[in-house]
Description:
10 helices, glycosyltransferase activity, alpha/beta, Spore Coat Polysaccharide Biosynthesis Protein SpsA, Chain A, 2 domains, transmembrane, 8-stranded mixed β-sheet, single chain, 16% strand, binds magnesium ion, binds uridine-5'-diphosphate
Amino acid sequence: MSLIKPLPTLALVLPCFNEEDVLGITIPHLSALLNSYIENKLISADSFALFVDDGSRDRTWNILLTNQSPHVKSIKLSHNVGHQYALMAGLTYVTNKVDCCVSLDADLQDDSSVIEQMIQDYRQGSQIVYGVRGSRNSDKQMKSGTAHLFYRLMKQMGVDLIYDHADFRLLSNKVLVELQHYKEVNLFLRGLFPMMGFQSSIVYYARKERVAGKTKYPFKKMLHLAVDGITSFSNLPLKMITYIGFTVFVASFLISLWVLFQRFYGITVPGWASITLPMYFLGGIQLLALGVIGEYLGKIYMETKARPRYHIEEEA
Ligand code: UDP
Ligand code: MG
């Protein structure tokens, strides 16, 4: 059954951190896009693009304030909270103000021309439409390599991620409302939506080059996101500690038998290697185990505080 919905109100949600170089291109581009969709009766006239200034330290907020486009709204967060929370701030802001929204990066790497297809899918009944990178030619070798490894690792851990989908997606207002029930401080949005299980579809696109400026996702932030993704959705690292602990226990039991055997048969060996090697080995495993437990403990600590994830300082 295909259920064609009436003209939806659409919000484009764009987190921006120090994006003064790209906004001069992005704002007119998206305004023109929205205008053409409105003229072609794809979306309603009150649709808009929402820019979320994630505590930028450059002219991002000034540029947003001086823009003249009637289809552009902006909110300013009081400090830099990172891409996931900034996106969450935008999604929360548009909840119950629109019929659907599309989140995309401010640098236009996500191909905005497929948004039309996303809206068509939404009007056919999809509650979530995932933008999936059909081509990663524009990403550096290192980025696509580590991303590939990450998706595979998550799959192994039983986390239902859409392969090569980042944060370019359409969400219906129904999904936005449901999203508000997820109060977790450790947010990994691309893991949440597949878990929700709403009717969804996929739109493929070619990831483009950044239109201007530099990436705001250095390796350190990517690693942080990966650790958050794994520890927020899987207990496997904790289980692995148990397995490793068990293996080491069995091994040390066997070694003890061997030592006893040597003792009784009077074979005396200078025992330097057999003492120091297990020491380093066990020390290493213990530190690793403590680190993993600490990572989870830290997460629990942050969750129990249940602090607000961001603060909106200004609206325009
Ligand atoms: N971003 C943000 N807060 C941050 C880092 C990034 O809002 O702390 C935004 C950034 O402005 C961009 C999007 O997140 O719109 C994706 O970042 P970027 O393009 O730098 O990442 P890449 O595409 O290189 O992975
Ligand atoms: Mg980018």
